[in-house]
């Protein structure tokens, strides 16, 4: 179950069609969920969707991919990701820590492992 949830999380960050992205957000995030990282934050379906859309605007042509395996304990999960052009070395990467409730994200805190420059 968690593998599929994390794969859906990555898919949300890569979905550029606004309506399709919002549908995915409502499917995998709790209505009052929160996301925060050193660069951005969002709360609730609308806030998280807007945040992801803004991030896509900052990094056109880049895609997210999952790096490594996930680590889970109880309702907590840790996983890493990369961001870069398709078929090329990543330009950024991070590790996210999430709380999952009833199969959906309740809270995600992101940390940047490496960034450009």
Please outline the helices and strands.
Elements: H1 2-14, H2 18-28, E1 29-36, E2 41-43, H3 44-58, E3 62-73, E4 76-85, E5 92-101, E6 104-114
Helix pairs in contact: 1-2, 2-3
User: What's the shape?
Assistant: globular
Mean pLDDT across residues: 96
Query: Which spans have pLDDT < 50 for at least 5 consecutive residues?
Result: none
**Helical stretch tally:** 3
First-last Cα distance: 36 Å
Helix content: 25-40%
Order of helices and strands: HHEEHEEEE
Judged by helices, strands and strand pairing, the structural class is alpha+beta
Rg of Cα set? 13 Å
Oligomeric nature of the chains: single chain
Number of strands: 6
What does this structure look like?
It is globular, with a radius of gyration of 13 Å. It has a six-stranded mixed sheet. Helix 1 packs antiparallel against helix 2 and helix 2 packs across helix 3. The chain is an alpha+beta fold and 117 residues long. The protein has three helices and six strands. The model has no long low-confidence stretch (mean pLDDT 96).
């Amino acid at each position: 179950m968690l593998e599929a949830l994390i794969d859906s999380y990555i898919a949300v960050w890569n979905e550029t069609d606004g309506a399709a992205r919002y549908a995915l957000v409502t499917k995998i995030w709790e209505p009052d969920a929160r996301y925060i990282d050193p660069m951005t934050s969002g709360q609730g379906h609308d806030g998280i969707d807007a945040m992801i859309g803004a991030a896509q605007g900052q990094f056109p042509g880049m895609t997210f991919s999952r790096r490594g395996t996930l680590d889970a304990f109880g309702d907590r999960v840790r996983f890493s990701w990369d961001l870069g052009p398709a078929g090329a070395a990543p330009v950024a990467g991070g590790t996210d820590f999430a709380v999952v409730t009833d199969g959906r994200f309740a809270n995600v805190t992101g940390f940047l492992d490496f960034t450009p420059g």
